What does this fold into?
Amino acid sequence: MKNVVAVYTGQGLADPLKAVFREVLPDVRLVNIIDDSLIGDVVQAGHIPPGVARRLVQYFHHGEELGADVILNTCSSVGEVAEEARKLIGVPIVKIDDAMAAKAAAAYDRVAVLATLPSTLQPTMRLIEAKAAELGRDVKLVNGLAEGAFEALTGGRPEEHDRILLETALRVAKDADAIVLAQGSMARMEKALAEETGKPVLSSPRLGVEQVRETLEKLSRGEPIERPSFGGATQVCG
It folds into this structure.
């Protein structure tokens, strides 16, 4: 049985992602490492503090020690730390939003990025820009920060969160060919937002788990895993 260790910076995505794993990778042993202080510290600081980066890399090391064949980083806000951690960890690290960003960069000329936190919005936009640069494409990005939605959700007002998210999606959809949901926890609204805006909507959980599956299949065949770094250089994990 293959082992996947998923590292979370918050609680919200763990259960929905378990359901995706049961469907896409039912025979994999999934181990979750959850530290919800991480995203709290990122939100409070407005960036990734050194302490968060250190703890996150420690969790990746723990995942390796737990026997992970693949580690899944589930938080887009800390994706750039996961990118750098690939140099330090002996097993592949899959970023949950990598496949989503690559698909958006390849298929659309104007992409709106919807997020409830600036700390998630900016890394996601940079990731799509990097994927577009790898393809030699010029992709216009539209800022879709849904201000107030995160506070509504953490304040126990999910209906207000969804309303703000929908209003923001309708606004940015006018200038975009597709919408990217920067946070995996938004995936539950993917279908509704697509129906209301009339635009394709991409979310990360399923695409991320499918990338985990592809990585496991390559490992089973003994193929090296190419892992492009954020700066464009390529590392190979054998």
